[in-house]
Amino acid sequence: MGSGKDDDLHGNVPDNAAVALLLIDVINDLEFPGADELARYAFPMAERIAALKRRAKAAGIPVIYVNDNFGRWQSDLNKLLAHSLQDGVRGPRMAELLRPDEDDYFVLKPKHSGFFSTTLDLLLDYLQARTLILTGVAGNICILFTANDAYMRDFRLYVPGDCVASNRAEDNEYALEQMRVVLKADVTPSTALDLAALKRGPGGVGRGAWAGGRGP
Q1: Number of C-alpha atoms within 13 angstroms, CB side, residue 122?
Q2: Residue 204: CB partners within 8 Å, gap ≥ 6?
Q3: Which of the ends of the chain has fewer CB neighbours closer than 10 A, N or C?
């Protein structure tokens, strides 16, 4: 008998995707206390994530949306997207900028971390990804919790400082510093990330790209 693992996940997973780009909670209605403050930072952030996503897809890096279910256990990606675009909420600008493509992946999460009670572990295993680029909101909550769980699983971490946002700039900076120092995450801005080098692995990236640094 075989191992029980379908190596191509029914033909839908790219081969040897050593790097994955995660967009965390970007399909978001921004209807919660403090969302006005977050929106100031989230909308410019969304434009930078959109640019990074285009570069990642051109480089053959898969994109995974890891999104909160907003307490709606019957939600799926289409319902969340429709709600964020059409229900008169604060979030349509971000949702429109970061609307998923048909070949993107989607993981629904019930709590802060993208790994807690989700299929993310299994998907990353099939993708053979060992390096994660984390983007989205909020930097000091869901990004931080996901980064912590990824670090404990021995993933190499990149958290582009210009592609995460929190309610307050100082909270975002503190979270980034914690991820840089404690979780050994590289927080180089997205525009300085060499995606081709990331795909080549530790031997293909410069000193600043996997030393927890802010760049070379």
Answers
A1: 10
A2: 196, 197, 198
A3: N
CB 104 within 8 A of CB 63: yes
Cα–Cα distances in angstroms (integers) from residue 55 to residues 52, 179, 192, 194, 196, in the given order? 5, 24, 12, 10, 10
Beta strands in 61-214 (DSSP E): 63-68, 105-109, 131-137, 156-158, 164-165
CB atoms within 10 A of CB 36: 10
Tokens of 174: 């503190």
pTM of the model: 0.82
Range picked from 13-17, 104-108, 133-137 for highest mean pLDDT: 133-137
Task: Report helix, strand or coil for 79.
Answer: helix
Distance of CA 213 to the CA centre of its chain: 19
Q: What are phi and psi of 52, to 5 degrees?
A: -65, -40
Segment holding 35, helix H or strand E: helix 35-58
What is residue 25's DSSP assignment? S
Residues 37-93 have pLDDT tens digits of 777 888 899 999 999 999 999 999 999 999 887 655 455 666 666 655 565 555 567
The answer to whether the beta carbons of residues 138 and 169 sit under 8 Å apart is no
Whether residue 7 has pLDDT greater than 60: no
First to last CA, the chain: 49
* Residue pair 100/106 in contact by the 8 Å Cβ criterion: yes
Using DSSP bridges, classify how beta strands 131-137 and 164-165 pair: parallel, antiparallel or unpaired.
Answer: parallel
